[in-house]
Amino acid sequence: MEMTKSLILFCTALAACLALAAAGWSPGTATFYGGADGSGTMGGACGYDNLYNAGYGVNNAALSTTLFNDGASCGQCYRITCDRSRPGGQNCKPGNSITVTATNLCPPNYALPAGGWCGPGRPHFDMSQPAWEHIGVYQAGIVPVQYQQVKCSRSGGVRFGIAGSNYFLLVNIQNLAGSGSVGAAMVKGDKTGWIHMSRNRGANWQALAGLVGQGLSFSVTSTGGQRIQFLNVVPAWWQFGMVFSTNRNFIR
């Protein structure tokens, strides 16, 4: 009887794993940081600063190097569910999953073997504590998960945070729906043609041009392949540190 029960449980877990794999899920692990209110997750390697103002809130995560992809994953959304079929799964809250936005990098810790949980080759999410506690028991500290990238749903349009200097422009592109992340960007001043931008760090894109005093337009291509031109969204009186919102967003 006991052997039959064990076999049934094994088959059930195996069937669940196969179903997740067929649905595009991948195995990983998850920890948490930033305090009970998530305030310690504000800012981060993507450059979003205040995550509420940028459109992301507390459901966020720092990604291991493998997932962060040198910042190309900034803004992407991941559906995460605790995996009860793997060691540590007893610390899962059954039936719960949550969608988080990639807003930070979880760097390797080479004081630990293989760089720790965020070491090279390991798909790991260091989630905000409120998001993590939706799927895992606090005392555990780490749980096995299954994850998949999903479309992002956002409130409002794409936002452009302006920084840089008189000699170059640095723009943080925020609040993308659809794929959530930027694949390419261009900027145009009132007195220039379109200028190609390059990724500086995370979600920051730069143009090596002095554009102070000019109204700005942007052309943004999402990693989902959709391109939108945001014309005349930044007036000529802009100053460094300002953020400008639009009423348009991506669907893919």
Automatic annotation (TrEMBL):
Gene3D superfamilies named among the record's database cross-references: Expansin, cellulose-binding-like domain, RlpA-like domain
Leader sequence segment: 1-23
Record carries keyword Metal-binding: no
Top-rank taxon, per record: Eukaryota
Record's keyword annotation contains Transport: no
InterPro entries: Expan_Lol_pI, Expansin, Expansin/allergen_DPBB_dom, Expansin_CBD, Expansin_CBD_sf, RlpA-like_DPBB, RlpA-like_sf
Membrane topology: Peripheral membrane protein
UniProt record, GO biological process: cell wall organization
Domain named Expansin-like CBD: residues: 167-246
GO CC terms of this entry: membrane
PROSITE patterns referenced in this protein's UniProt entry, alphabetically: EXPANSIN_CBD (PS50843), EXPANSIN_EG45 (PS50842), PROKAR_LIPOPROTEIN (PS51257)
Function recorded in the entry: Causes loosening and extension of plant cell walls by disrupting non-covalent bonding between cellulose microfibrils and matrix glucans. No enzymatic activity has been found.
Family per similarity comment: Belongs to the expansin family. Expansin A subfamily.
Identification of the protein by name: Expansin
Species in which this protein is naturally found: Urochloa decumbens
